[in-house]
Amino acid sequence: MVLLHTQQTVKYFRVAPAAVWVFDYCLTFEHEIRLFSSMGRWNIAHAMFIITRYAPIAWFTSEIYVTLGPESVETCLTTYRTAGGALVLIMVATEGLLLMRTLALWHHNEKIKRFLLASYLLVATSMLICDVLAVSPNLESVCAPTSTQGSVEEATRVERLIMGMFVSAALFELTVVIVTTYHSLTSRSAGMRTINNLVSKLWKGSLLYALSLFVISVANIISFSLPVRIFHVLRH
C-alpha cells in the first residue's frame, strides 16, 4: 500500500495550478508594470502583494520537482516543508491585504480598526503555529513509500493542521464580510443615500474579495476534512 501523495492523479493536481498561475500572471502583468512604475515609496502593502504574487513560485517549483524528479523520502520532505513555508506566507499576506482594504473602509472608526487588527494578528499567529506543527520531525513517516498505521495517523494529523490554517483564514474572512456589510447598512441608515464613488468601489471590492477568499477557504476545509485514503497498488 502507498499513501495518496504517491498517486499519479495527485501528481497531476500538484502541477495543474502552475498553468493557472502562469495564465493569470500573463493577463495581469501589464497592470503590475503600470502599478510599480507609477508608485512612490514602498510600504507594507506592496510587500504583501509581492509575497502573494511570487511566493507561489516556490510552491510550484517544489511540487513540479517532486512530481518529475526521483521519488525519495528526502525529496518528499523538502517538498512538504517548502510548500508549507510558501503556503503560510501566501495566506498571511493575502489576509493582510484583505485587512488593509477593510481598514481603509473603516478609517473613521478606531474601535473597529483595533478589532480587525487584533483578529488578524490572532489568525496569523494561529496559521503560523499550525504550519510549524505540520512540518514537525514526524513528517518522515508521511513520506515513506509504504504505509503503516503510524504513517496514516501522521498524515491525518498533518492534514488537520493544514485544515486548521484554512479554518483560521475562513473565520477572519467571514468577520470581514460581516463588518463590511455592517458598514454599508449603517451608512445607509445614517442617511448617506449617495455614497461617493471611491467608497462605493472600495466597499464592493472588499466584499467581493472577502467572499472569494472565504469560498476558497471553505473549499480547502472540505478537501482536507476528507479522510486520508490508502490505495492498494498492484506491482507487476
Question: In words, what does this structure look like?
Answer:
The chain has 6 helices and 2 strands, in the order βααααααβ. With 236 residues, it is mainly alpha-helical. It has one domain (2-231). α1 (8-38) runs antiparallel to α2 (44-68), α3 packs parallel to α5 and α4 (110-134) runs antiparallel to α5 (149-189). The protein starts with a strand and ends in a 5-residue tail after the last strand.
In short:
This protein is mainly α and 236 residues long. It is built from six helices and two strands.
Largest sheet: 2 strands, antiparallel
Work out the count of structural domains.
1
Overall number of strands:
2
N- to C-terminal separation?
Answer: 14 Å
Calculate the mean pLDDT score and round it: 76
Uncertain parts? 1-7, 229-236
Q: Structural class of the helices, strands and pairings? A: mainly alpha
Strand order of the largest sheet: 1-2
Number of helices: 6
Percent of residues in helices comes to over 70%
- Write the H/E string, N to C: EHHHHHHE
The gross shape turns out to be: globular
Content of β-strand: under 5%
Using the CA coordinates, give the radius of gyration.
Answer: 21 Å
Which tags fit this structure?
two-stranded antiparallel sheet; single chain; about 80% helix; about 240 residues; membrane; globular; disordered N terminus; about 0% strand
